[in-house]
Design a protein that fits this description.
By secondary structure, this protein is mostly helical. The protein contains 20 helices and six strands.
């Protein structure tokens, strides 16, 4: 098959070169963006008198027919034509003749592929933003159901202080809130129109780049042609967003794995989101959480790979930039799957409130509250810390917890202990005493629920704004 760029060559390319050089096996997912961008380009060429209106009409109808064929599964993609751009243009020219051959006037594949990628990232960001909101809603729904469910909070994976399950889930909500803000930043950097930059130095034809930007709903146009064709910052930013999001999801995955174990027993995943063992009949494995945890490393790798690809490239276009797609596509697919499956998994999991309450009553996570009690009686905190440390050591030796000790036993360590110390040691009191902003008390939970509802409302508004720019 003759190459659309083959006029200068006297030999056909080697079959291995064709296979190695081609990107059609993965960049064919850009077909909608490629066709839409070509329609806008042809419309601009006709408006500027660069091609005839008749040719433009043939091009537009031909591209719409090709779109219908692709979506109906009737389009055969050719490796010899390398990529989605050449596949579509060759088929168009085959169908409508010279009019199709005029489409590429004042355009290079360099700015064409840049346009497709910008449009594709914008579309995927808008979809991911919606999925992110739905998962945040799921977290908030479960948190509101468990605003008074006590559980141990951990540092170093050792029981630290009593909290509520709601407070724990709201920590993840706030992580995702930051992720959403980062995602909006990705959209902003992708919302710049590169078409018209040509291969490197623009074009001699009187094109109207701003008209094309308006047709394709871009807010801005690249002011420098060299930057336009070589910029992949927005892809790096997406991969950075994806890596941070997946890191958050991986941390949650680790906790779900721990919480669903017999040793913790805090939750049980719904059967629809767990798997069994081919050998051990009793097993119920949190495979989805493990897979998300594992896939996080893959997304990290895609970000590092893209940064490495870009780090030594001279301006402007180099074939290395073809490597911007597979990792991006994989990261997008991974993020979308993760958010979709986790929403339903979180909503259907069983929270074992009695087990959580038992756990927080059979540990020393109320020790800090005992120290605070002594501080309120006038003892300096460092001295109170030492006294309570001795109380804990004594309790461990006696095989007791702090709530099991008598007032007489406490008096061995300080005369400041009074009968009211038992109230200070009650886990529910420990939680509700923490009324500082951002704390786990029931009152603070209620305040944070209001804030989270407002965050979701603002995010919905932002999503609707994104849709107007697609």
């Amino acid at each position: 098959m003759a190459k659309l760029w083959g006029g200068r060559f006297s030999k056909n390319t080697n079959e291995l070169v064709d296979a190695f050089n081609a990107s059609i096996n993965y960049d064919k997912r850009l077909y909608r963006e490629d066709i839409r961008g070509s329609i806008a380009h042809a419309t601009m060429l006709a408006k500027q008198g660069i091609i005839s209106v008749e040719d433009k009409d043939k091009i537009v109808q031909g591209l719409k027919d090709i779109l219908a064929d692709i979506e109906a599964g009737k389009f055969d993609f050719s490796v010899e034509l390398e990529d989605i751009h050449m596949n579509i243009e060759a088929r168009l020219t085959e169908r409508i003749g010279d009019a199709g051959a005029r489409l590429h006037t004042a355009r290079s594949r360099n700015d064409q592929v840049a346009l497709d990628m910008h449009m594709y990232v914008k579309r995927e960001v808008a979809e991911i933003a919606e999925l992110l909101i739905r998962f945040e809603e799921a977290l908030l729904t479960v948190a509101k159901k468990h605003d008074k469910t006590l559980m141990p909070g951990y540092t170093h994976l050792q029981r630290a202080q009593p909290i509520t399950f709601a407070h724990h889930l709201l920590a993840y909500f706030n992580m995702l809130r930051r992720d959403f803000d980062r995602l909006l930043g990705v959209f902003d950097r992708a919302d710049i129109m590169p078409l018209g930059a040509g291969a490197i130095a623009g074009t001699t034809f009187p094109i109207d780049r701003f008209f094309v930007a308006e047709q394709l709903h871009f807010s801005k146009v690249y002011p420098n042609s060299m930057d336009a064709v070589s910029d992949r910052d927005y892809i790096l930013e997406f991969l950075s967003f994806a890596s941070i999001l997946m890191m958050h999801m991986s941390r949650l995955s680790e906790e779900l794995c721990l919480w669903s174990s017999t040793e913790f027993g805090f939750i049980e995943l719904d059967d629809a989101f767990a798997t069994g063992s081919s050998m051990m009949p009793q097993k119920k494995n949190p495979d989805i959480s493990e897979l998300v945890r594992g896939k996080t490393g893959r997304v990290y790798g895609e970000m590092i790979a893209m940064m490495t690809t870009l780090k030594g490239l001279p301006l402007t276009y180099n074939k290395d930039l073809q490597e911007d797609k597979e990792g991006l596509f994989d990261a997008i697919d991974t993020v979308k799957f993760t958010l979709q499956v986790y929403r339903d998994m979180i909503l259907t999991m069983q929270v074992k409130t009695d087990r959580m309450k038992w756990a927080v009553s059979h540990d020393f996570s109320n020790a800090t509250d005992l120290a605070d009690y002594l501080v309120r009686k006038g003892l300096p905190f460092r001295k109170a810390h030492a006294v309570v440390g001795k109380c804990v050591a004594y309790a461990i030796k006696e095989n007791k917890f702090l709530l099991d000790m008598t007032l007489a036993e406490y008096k061995q360590f300080s005369d400041l202990f009074e009968p009211d110390l038992m109230q200070a040691l009650d886990p529910e009191h420990c939680v509700n005493a923490r009324v500082s902003y951002g704390g786990p008390s029931y009152v603070e939970n209620d305040k944070q629920f209001v804030v989270c509802d407002k965050v979701l409302a603002d995010q919905e508004t932002a999503c609707k704004a994104l849709e107007t720019k697609l």
